[in-house]
Amino acid sequence: MKTTVTASLVLAGLISVLSSQALAISDACSLSLKALPQGHKMTAEQVKTYQTKLEKECALTKTYRDVRSILNNNFGHLSLDKITEYQAMRFVVRADYERARQSNTLITKVYQIKRSDYSLPEEQRSSVIWDNWEVGMKQLQGSRDKVLRGQGFTVDDLIKVHIGFFTLSKEEGDDAWNPQEGLLKQENENDNYWWNFNSAAEALEAKRIVNEINTEYRELGLTENSGDADFDNVLRVKNSLKRQPVDKKDVVEYVDAIYSGDTRANRKHVDSIFKFINAMLAQALKGEHMLWNGRLLTPMEVGYLAQKFYVGVHPFAEGNGRTSRYILELFMTSFDMPHGSSGDLMSNDVLMTFKDYYELAYTSNAKLMNGMIECINQYEKNNPAAIDYNCRILK
Predict the structure, then answer these.
(1) What is the mean pLDDT of residues 135-143?
(2) Are residues 249 and 122 in the same domain?
């Protein structure tokens, strides 16, 4: 079977080369063959790293296209999006996915609106959260057509996308969250924090990482340097009130906690990331390397940098994870690359330096595509009873 798949991959490779040549956008493979533009401000070592990343991303792109072609041509026009692991890792956290796999639970029933619903038998559980997400993701094709026409992606587009993710339900559960569809958070000087740290050492390490992240954003020109740290920075670690006093006997506790971007700067930061994305797309659509403030960036670097920056801003009351991954997928699929193994990244897209985040993203995507090759091997055996959970076809 391995030999059969390898031969199929070679044959599909010819198809993928032809399809990639038809693309108007400059993907990682075509960029790796182009001379570097004048005006970049990278050292020889940085250029070498950039070219190595392009080569790795090109290999990932070819594998993706080959797997897609084999599924389409050999298995009744089967789409990658119908394979459980590939589709689930766009939305479900890896740990939750593994629990579903071990209990043989339908992936569409993993997330529930109310905590009490998680104890229900599978047949009584709702799929509304998954369905909400799927409805929202149907907007992707229209957005992709728009950016490939050179019209970019705007805040108005984002607002429509956000509304689309709550078409079936506002998902108001035990915590009574209201997504406030299509509305950016109102300006508020007293933002609620995400989570607090358990020790001074943990908080100190978080401050170091947050400082490194904010510094890179500033050096890239994605944020300003006005001197107001709350307003300029996308992430913040602050000493926060943990418990409000009820009477005089209560002791007020203050703890170090991590905050998302200041709501007063939400619109500015969202505008900034879309300016960045659209500038990169404009260059790629002209067949050029993507150059930003003297730095050359690969397709995956742009996509994952935009997603990470955006989720740090957290501009909506709810739905920030979905819209951040929508932006990622819009960019990546415009380059005819995999959607992205987001489920492997959700626990790390805030408090991780971008260098480490990129490496994790690449490794997770490569692992996911290898898993899809294994699914092809299982399909080749034509034994439905031997198809494991990861490779099952979603109904």
Answers:
(1) 97
(2) no
